[in-house]
Amino acid sequence: MLNALTLLMCCQFAGEVIARGASLPLPGPVLGLLVLLAYLVVRGSAPNPDLAITSGWLLRYFGLLFVPAGVGVITQLDILGDNWLPLLVAIPVSTFLGLVTTGWVMQRLARQE
Amino acid sequence: MEKLFTLWVYLETTPLLGLVATLLAWQAASAIALRMGGAALANPMLISVCILAGLLLATGTPYSAYFQGAQYVHFLLGPATVALALPMYANLSRIRRSAGAILPALLAGSLVASLSAMLIARLLGAPRVVVLSLAPKSVTTPIAMGIAEQIGGQPSLAAVFVLLTGLSAIVLIGPAMRMAGVVDMRAQGLAAGMAGHGLATARMLLVSETAGAFGGLAIGLNGIITAVLVPLLATLLR
Questions:
Q1: Smallest Cβ distance to A8: which of B79, B88, B196?
Q2: Are B48 and A64 in contact (CB < 8 Å)?
Q3: Angstroms from A52 CA to nearest CA on chain B
Q4: Contact B118, B237 (CB under 8 A)
Q5: Secondary structure of chain A: what % helix, strand, coil (to 5)?
Q6: Pairwise CB contact (< 8 Å): B184 & A93
Q7: Which of B29-33, B34-38, B71-75 has the lowest average pLDDT?
Q8: Do residues B152 and B132 touch, judged by C-beta distance below 8 A?
Q9: Which chain A residues contact residue B168 at CB under 8 A?
């Protein structure tokens, strides 16, 4: 658990350093994901069970990790209240259209397995 | 009573209160979601946010005081995002085989999602700052906040839109895939990650590891695509 957490945070740290160093418009964790992926590819074997278990545990509680940012909604209540109608339409409709577009194009172009 | 008040004043200054409140709200929300069965809106994250936001408003606690403790949970978003590399690694050969389809699918979806959100909001009379903050709503929170700031939106507002978008994607992905006739799990995962970032991807991961892998890929790539695309859209919509 501790080994895996250390590895994950080192990757995030490396991602952060790359992002700042090269002033890329990407957040550290996303680059950290690529760093870990590269590490796994270079190593070549199956990821060790400790890393697999810890990652699975973190991913299972992804929703919980969004809660603190979500509660931040209380700092935006005025602007949300003033614009509830445009938001209530724009967010679900655009999300639906995006889902359909990506899903459809991908299924169309990806070769059957 | 006075003792209770002093205790409250003390607890309010420690990070423990916000942390414990977040974890307890999550436990309660999970129990409620379980009891509500498979209803799409019975999402533990949504219920937790409602409980905590209600509590903060009822007690007049400022968000900054709550976040003092909740930041420890918030921080784990970083390592969790890095952890998405594992399902991606497990599916690397499948990702390589469909590489030619992934980019057009993401580009088209990203364009449609951002543009339709901005146009609808503008047609319905939303002010410019709201329209611009909506543009990066499909990507993961830190990228979205950065893009919103860059194009003249409001980062904290963008963060809220990102969340609402993720929840919408969780609710809508079933009907959307049925309507479009999409049965390929690679396509479903890619759509989830593109339109609903980590929130929808984590949900798809429960259904299929393949979908989760393509979702993780879509989160990263769509972040890059949107960071390039949205500033262009913002200038077009001036």
A1: B79
A2: yes
A3: 7
A4: yes
A5: 85, 0, 15
A6: no
A7: B34-38
A8: yes
A9: 91-92, 95-96
How far B133 CA lies from chain A's nearest CA (Å)? 11
Q: Which of A102-106, B15-19, B86-90, B124-128 has the lowest mean pLDDT?
A: B86-90
Closest CA to B52 of B86, B94, B19: B19
pLDDT in tens, A7-24: 999 999 999 999 889 987
Question: For A61-83, how does the pLDDT look when each residue is reduced to its tens digit (9 = 90+)?
Answer: 888 998 998 898 899 899 999 99
Q: Which of A74, A62, A93, A99 has the alpha carbon at shortest distance from B43?
A: A62
Is residue B199 a contact partner of residue B166, using CB atoms and an 8 Å limit? yes
Q: Using CB atoms and an 8 Å cut-off, which of residues 57-96 of chain A contact chain B?
A: 58-76, 79-80, 83, 85-87, 89-96
pLDDT score of B57: 95
**Cα gap B131→B136, rounded to integer Å:** 10
Q: A67, B70 in Cβ contact below 8 A?
A: yes
Closest CA to A38 of A70, A5, A65, A15: A15
> Is pLDDT above 70 for B42?
yes
Q: How many angstroms separate the CA of residue A89 from the nearest CA in chain B? A: 7
The CA-atom distances, in angstroms, between B29 and each of A48, B35, B44 are: 33, 10, 5
CB-CB contact of B210 with B203 (8 Å): no
- Distance, in Å, from the CA atom of B7 to the CA atom of A44, rounded to the nearest integer, reads 55
